[in-house]
Amino acid sequence: MIGIDETNIFYLLLQLSIIFILTNFVNSFLKKINQPTITGDLLVGIILGPTILGSFFPKIYNFIFPQNLVQVAMLDTLGWFGLFLVLLSTGIEVDFSSIWKQRKNALVISTLDIIVPIIFSMAFIYFLPSRYFEFSDNKFITSFFISVIMTISALPIAIRALREVGIMKSDLGFLIISALTINDIIGWIIFTLLLSLFSMKFFDWEIAIKITLYTGVFTFLALNVGKKVVNWLFSKVVNQDSDGVQGILAVLISTGVVFGLITLEIGIHTLFGFFIAGIVAGDSPIFTKSARNTVHNFVYSIFASLFFVNIGLKINFFESFNLFLALFITFVGITGRYLGAWIGSTLSKNIKYRNIISIAHTPGGEMHIVVSLIALSFGLLNKELFVAIVFAAILSSIINGPWLAVASKRFNYLESFEVLVYPGIKLEAQCKEQVISKLLDLLKLEYREVNILENVLDREDIVCSGLQNSIAIPKGNMEDETKTKIIYARLENPINWNSLDGKLTKNIFLILTSREEEENQIKVVKKITNFSKKCDEIKGLDELSTEKNIEDYITKILSD
Question: What pTM does this model have?
Answer without folding.
Answer: 0.82
